[in-house]
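Input chain follows. Return structure tokens only.
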Amino acid sequence: MAEETRAEKEPVEGGRRGRAGNDAAAPTEAAAVSERPRGRFGRRRGGAGVAGAGAAAGAGAAALVLLLSRLVRLIVGVIVAIIVVAILLTVLDANASNTIVKDLHDAGKSLVGPFKDVFTNKDPKIAIAVNWGLAALVYLIVGSIIAGLIARVATTLRPAPAGRDRGRA
């Protein structure tokens, strides 16, 4: 009786648990090796060999390029946010002697350097709002174009799905 309980708990060849006296139901080792797992819709998964290794490398490169595209979008978003906050602090008369206000204004000023005095106005607050707003818009547009081009490169690196006929319905 103790042997039957132990036989029920121990796995047999092929990775399945057997029942006492029912070893015929367990697959043979050769059948377990030749039978690959099936994915959704009954297609076999894995075992693609050398072609699968190349596809995995292409997918990894595409993932890295997409990560770079996301990083560019993040950096552009932070730059635009700094410029917009600096505009708001200037227009709303924030305390210029405050360290945070001063640091944000200095960071905004260094980012919008080329856009200084594009538009002139008698009121310096309006001039800053317009010129720095233009700079933020240009950063946003150019950054989005660059990130989009990088993401497009990722789609060319991504391998086509293997074994699928796109012509069939």
